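ok, trying the design again with the full structure, not the truncated one.
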């Protein structure tokens, strides 16, 4: 350990997405290759001597305790735990979460020493993994609110690869087998159906970790919500969601020394007649078992919606992935031009 193939794969995966900015400490990690990367893992991150690094991924992450703060992380999967190597700026930006993040090392901040904090979720504490719509993100859940993390990969390939690696590592865990199921009688079998919770597709791994995938009802709920915004509930069956993708909306910041832009995470939904941008809560749904009350906000909140017929042109940048698209719409909002022209010019 490790094999040449694994070292080459981890080196290839060790690339920060070009559109996201990270601190100097994480840039240092991204500069490591091959054996240097594995040695860095064993000397700085690994908690036990005999654990093996199996997978590396760069992803935006959200914590259940800080649901409004998306932060870049280097996610390392080993045979013992999942490690989230985070920007040090994340701790200082969210001062009121001092009970969540340990700040013993804050005396280092004025030195040339660059600090990263590492959040650890041991595989033995892992209870379930919720995969988001179209594999755009996944949520890892442990025993408590502190152990809920969503990885916003915005990439079905990265999600799929991580889930496959995680399942392989979980297969190595020696867990006590589940107790034999008790034979249910007729009344308990059919009397507990009205829980009001939507049943998703569940795959229970041999390690007893649940892998939960969305079902068709979730798309149906989303279509109903979109139809509600479009006010077309009458012909709901004809409404098709053509595309669901996690993207960023680019907001240009003017007045700065250089023309910088900030990226706002958005969910883009395309139907046959409209284009919508939603603010989506990726961390609170489905509700964890220990949640005492529903989340503060709805899962989907509409921020913008435009008709495709008002779309004038689409501008495409020439840079490599991720691609920048600019949608240019006509200024006329909520007006049917043809109807007005007919009345004014061709009616009696």
């Amino acid at each position: 350990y490790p094999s040449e193939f694994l070292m080459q794969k981890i080196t290839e995966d060790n690339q920060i997405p070009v559109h996201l900015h990270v601190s100097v400490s994480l840039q240092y990690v991204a500069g490591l290759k091959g054996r240097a990367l594995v040695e860095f893992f064993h000397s700085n991150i690994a908690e036990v001597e005999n654990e093996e690094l199996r997978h590396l991924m760069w992803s935006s992450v959200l914590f259940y305790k800080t649901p409004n703060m998306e932060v870049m992380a280097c996610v390392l999967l080993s045979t013992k735990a999942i490690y989230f190597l985070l920007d040090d700026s994340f701790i200082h930006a969210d001062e009121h979460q001092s009970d969540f993040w340990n700040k013993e090392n804050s005396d280092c901040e004025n030195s040339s020493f660059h600090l990263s904090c590492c959040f650890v979720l041991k595989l033995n504490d892992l209870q379930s993994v919720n995969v988001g719509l179209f594999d755009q993100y996944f949520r890892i859940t442990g025993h408590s609110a502190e152990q809920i993390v969503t990885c916003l990969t915005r990439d079905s390939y990265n999600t799929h690869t991580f889930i496959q690696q995680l399942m392989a590592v979980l297969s190595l865990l020696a867990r006590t087998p589940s107790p034999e199921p008790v034979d249910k009688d007729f009344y308990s079998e059919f009397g507990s159906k009205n829980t009001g919770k939507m049943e998703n597709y569940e795959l229970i791994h041999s390690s007893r970790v649940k892998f939960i995938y969305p079902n068709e009802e979730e798309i149906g709920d989303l279509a109903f919500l979109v139809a509600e915004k479009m006010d077309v509930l009458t012909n709901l069956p004809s409404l098709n969601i053509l595309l669901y993708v996690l993207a960023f909306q680019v907001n240009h910041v003017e007045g700065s020394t250089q023309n910088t832009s900030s990226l706002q995470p958005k969910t883009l939904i395309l139907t046959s007649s409209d284009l919508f941008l939603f603010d989506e809560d990726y961390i609170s749904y489905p509700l964890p078992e220990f949640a005492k009350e529903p989340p503060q906000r709805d899962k989907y909140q509409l921020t913008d919606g435009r008709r495709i017929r008002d779309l004038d042109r689409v501008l495409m940048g020439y840079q490599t992935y991720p691609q920048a698209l600019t949608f240019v719409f006509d200024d006329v909002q909520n007006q049917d031009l043809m109807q007005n022209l007919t009345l004014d010019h061709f009616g009696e």
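Keeping the full-length input from now on. Residues 4-173 form a domain with the PH-domain like fold (CATH 2.30.29.30).
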